[in-house]
Amino acid sequence: MTKAAKEWGVSRTTIYQKVNDGELSRTADKKIDVSEMLRVFGEPISKKRTERSVNTVQSTPLNSQSVQYNTDIEHQLALEKLKNEHLSQQVNDQKKLIENYQQQIGQLNKTLDKANASIQDFAQVRLLEFRQSEPNDKIQSEQKQDTEITVIAEKKKKWWVF
Fold this sequence. Notes:
By secondary structure, the chain is mostly helical. It contains six helices and no strands.
């Protein structure tokens, strides 16, 4: 831990924090692999120092902080992208649910229309029965109309039976 902290210019506390947060993994013997440090923190400061001139050595701590900040921002960006993908999937799932509900509503409306038609047919049949129970002089004057209603009602009764 100490060697890694020195090479990358970060505190041991930061390394332990990354390990605890699951951003940085350790080997079975509790050591940190160089590839893990590279993945999380980028190039080590010691390597960068050898590449720089003596004049830029004084700005190394600031660059170390910048590298750390950039790495943190990259991790946050990756996390936000994952959240965005997850939310997009949820939106798509909700749209599918809405489409299914709309189809069900359409089917229920059709069934309701059929039930209303059946109720109207039933009412017409009951009206016809009521009229048939009236005195004969009224029935004779309306006999033609009643016959037509009866035929319609019988046809619709057959239609309603599944």
